[in-house]
Automatic annotation (TrEMBL):
<dbReference type="InterPro" id="IPR000182">
    <property type="entry name" value="GNAT_dom"/>
</dbReference>
<dbReference type="GO" id="GO:0016747">
    <property type="term" value="F:acyltransferase activity, transferring groups other than amino-acyl groups"/>
</dbReference>
<feature type="domain" description="N-acetyltransferase">
    <location>
        <begin position="16"/>
        <end position="171"/>
    </location>
</feature>
<protein>
    <recommendedName>
        <fullName>N-acetyltransferase domain-containing protein</fullName>
    </recommendedName>
</protein>
<dbReference type="Pfam" id="PF13302">
    <property type="entry name" value="Acetyltransf_3"/>
</dbReference>
<dbReference type="InterPro" id="IPR016181">
    <property type="entry name" value="Acyl_CoA_acyltransferase"/>
</dbReference>
<dbReference type="InterPro" id="IPR051531">
    <property type="entry name" value="N-acetyltransferase"/>
</dbReference>
Length: 184
């Protein structure tokens, strides 16, 4: 028997822990995908589909060597969302994406976690560019991208999600030379 295992690093910010997806995330993910908050990431899902989605999140790490982390709020030790690097079939290029669970929006967590994920992409994986795909009506995510210094860079037509805005994040050299992240 051959076993496949991928090390998923744990990242830490001032207020958050970004850890590997685990079975303990199933119920919080079920609540997220049963809520209106899921409207920009494919919509509501039943428990069976959420189970498959959790397996997909963990499997992306094995297939690609990177993926999305579960966000844990340090002060409460509660899962509060997911953030990370994503490049499934059909995507134009690698993406940083974020989802916050109910009750955790408006605290700056998405920006804080997405900046950590972007630093991982640039500093550890050696990426030189990354995008975020955002529904035009998702004003909260557009604000996160803007706070990160990303700029709108066209539109991508996706079979399932329709037309989404492409937000391009600053290259590592631009950040090092005093880009907006230097002041975040």
């Amino acid at each position: 028997m051959t076993q496949t295992s991928t090390h998923i690093p744990t990242l830490e910010t001032d207020r958050l822990i970004l850890r590997a997806p685990s079975i303990s995330d199933f119920e919080p993910l079920c609540a997220f995908y049963d809520s209106e908050r899921a409207r920009y990431v494919g919509g509501q899902m039943d428990r069976e589909k959420v189970w498959r989605h959790l397996a997909l999140e963990a499997g992306h790490w094995n297939l690609m060597g990177y993926g999305r982390w579960t966000l844990v709020e340090k002060s409460s030790e509660q899962p509060c969302g997911m953030v990370g690097l994503w490049n499934p079939e059909g995507w134009p290029e690698p993406e940083i994406g974020w989802d916050l669970f109910d009750g955790f929006g408006g605290k700056g967590y998405a920006t804080e976690a997405a900046l950590a994920a972007r630093s991982f992409a640039y500093d550890v994986l050696g990426w030189q560019t990354v995008i975020s795909l955002i529904a035009p009506e998702n004003h909260a995510s557009r604000s996160v991208a803007q706070r990160m210094g990303a700029a709108q860079d066209g539109v991508f037509s996706h079979v399932r999600f329709g037309d989404v805005e492409v937000w391009r994040h600053m290259a590592p050299a631009d950040i090092e030379n005093g880009g907006m992240e230097a002041y975040a």
